[in-house]
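G., the chain you wanted modeled:
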Amino acid sequence: MGFGFSVSQLKDKLKIGQVIFAAPDIDLMLFAARYRDRFEDIADRITIYTNTNDTALYWALRFLGWPRLGAPGELGLKPEDLRSFSIMENTWLIDVAAAEDAASGNGHGYFIKSPWVSTDLLLALKSGADPKCRGLTLKPEGLVWEFPDAYPQVAERLARNKSSNQ
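Predicted structure as tokens:
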């Protein structure tokens, strides 16, 4: 890695638990070539939030011409990309399109504007739990997590259980 440490020494030294990409406007190929493997080697968990309603990433694609990491479908993550992420242990892709207020504004600030997404982000950071334990469900293709309609009730139950266990 160029730091004078082995990967395991670097992981022990840095102690990175969770890396979260929220609305990532990064070239998909650049991420695959430079970052994905290094984060997977060093971080315990990687979460990538995507949003089909993100018009900022739509325009980034149109201007720059390269698929964006935070945009699923025609704007970025294709099925073959999703499959490559799915083989990465402890790496989760979450589509926020069904979350409350995920499309408000230009859809790029969903991690602040959507109470569902901000709650999930905080639960991910606090507990380190996987998306299933945080109440998210897998989409039918089994590669991407999404917010179910009942997410507010699930999140409330999780928060209540956490507070009663402390």
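Helices lie at 7-14, 28-42, 55-64, 79-86, 110-113, 115-127, 151-165.

Shout if anything looks off.
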